[in-house]
Specification:
Blueprint: E1 9-16, H1 34-37, H2 40-48, E2 53-59, H3 60-73, H4 81-92, E3 94-98, E4 110-113, H5 117-125, E5 131-135, H6 138-146, E6 152-158, E7 178-185, E8 191-197
Parallel strand pairs: 1-5, 1-6, 2-3, 2-5, 3-4
Antiparallel strand pairs: 6-8, 7-8
Length: about 200
């Protein structure tokens, strides 16, 4: 067994009570999510998701939005230390972006790949060290869940029913069992849950 066999895939996503990661208005409809992502609990969770990770695996849309937003935060001395810590991690981490339309992005330590998420994760597991973080990229998390390749899930459960919008857990996923390793609640009723895949 190689020394890289232990790389884990970590997913992070916020979901409404009815399992949506955005509202009925489409991917930009984050009204049921955003108020809870910036709470004390949300920021605490953000500071934990990257503790063991050395690689960020992102979809193109999230990469462009995330890197554009977080890069300045990394050097902003007035930013919340938890936000700044995540931003500094993201800027310094190896970033692999899945895209069928772009071949490069103007960010350091960023590589654009046109390949299925499962293939990319297998390649990443075969080289390098540290865990692989899929942060708020459901287009990547979904095929990885379908292939049973996710080892840990950080979930922020937002106390709203969106009534429409895309769900993370689609019908047809393989059955799997998970162990709850951490649970915390916030002042607005949000829950921060960490589940590890039981294998």
């Amino acid at each position: 067994m190689s020394s890289t066999a232990g790389r884990k895939v970590i997913g992070n996503l916020s979901l409404t009570l009815d399992g949506r990661y955005h509202g009925p208005g489409g991917p930009g409809d984050l009204g049921p999510i955003v108020p809870y992502a910036v709470t004390e609990l949300g920021r605490d969770l953000l500071s934990r998701i990257h503790e063991t990770a050395t690689t960020a695996l992102l979809g193109r849309g999230n990469a462009e939005g995330f890197l554009g937003y977080w890069s300045p935060v990394a050097t902003d001395e007035t930013a919340d230390p938890r936000d700044r810590g995540y931003a500094q991690w993201l800027v310094g981490a190896d970033k692999v972006v899945l895209s069928t339309t772009r071949t490069e992005l103007p960010y350091e330590r960023t590589r654009v790949v046109n390949a299925p998420a499962t293939n990319v994760v297998n390649d990443l597991k075969a080289s390098g060290t540290g865990d692989i973080l899929v942060n708020t990229s459901p287009s990547i998390l979904k095929p990885l869940l379908a292939a049973d390749m996710v080892d840990r899930l950080f979930l922020m459960i937002c106390p709203e029913i969106a009534g429409g919008g895309a769900r993370l857990f689609d019908d047809g996923l393989p059955a799997s069992r998970w162990t709850l390793t951490s649970q915390e609640s916030g002042d607005l009723g949000e829950l921060a849950l960490v589940y590890d895949r039981t294998r």
